[in-house]
Amino acid sequence: MDKFDLVIFDCDGVLVDSEHITNSVFAEMLNEMGLPVTLADMFDTFVGKSMAVCLEIIQQKLGKPVPDDFLSEYKQRTKKALVEKLQPIPGIHEVLAKLNLPFCVASNGVEEMMQTKLNITGLLPYFEGKLFSITHVARGKPHPDIFLYAAEKMGFAPQRCAVVEDTPTGVEAGFTAGMTVFGYAAISNPEQLRAAGASIVFNDMGVLPKLLQ
Fold this sequence. Notes:
By secondary structure, the chain is α/β, with parallel strands linked by helices. It is built from ten helices and six strands. The longest helix is centred in the middle third of the chain and has 16 residues, at about 70-85. The chain is globular.
């Protein structure tokens, strides 16, 4: 019998190579607002968290409310940067084409942005009707809600699900959901992924089908 019934992929950093692009835009806008941050700061503080949590952190650091047009401008500038630069994670097309298990995507992002990113990279056809976003649940990662919701909607028990994540926040969410977490460490710290609960850490997406066996 197969070890897993369902594979749940995170989106950013697992399916699409978007982390550097979106966080470069984010960092640029924060610097323009008078909050000096580097790209490394972005990965340490914001990556893997929902936008609502990120906005709370920014407000605390600024000591004043975030401008009303921040989100709309971020979306506009991010979309332009993604269209120009976004690529799929190396090997992910081949993995999805030969994966003999049901799979879906569960992200802390909103569905509109997920669709945009997956469409740009040609991955959207794999996930039609199988997109689960933070808008579907009360709490984002590191809470397990989004993974539990995805498993329920796909019709599988959490303990029979594998999660593929690239951030400690996402790994913690999958682990707390009672799922087996595979930490993708191509640009992440492997020890942080293990500490958050990843059972297996790997840095070549092409080996994932064998790891799942």
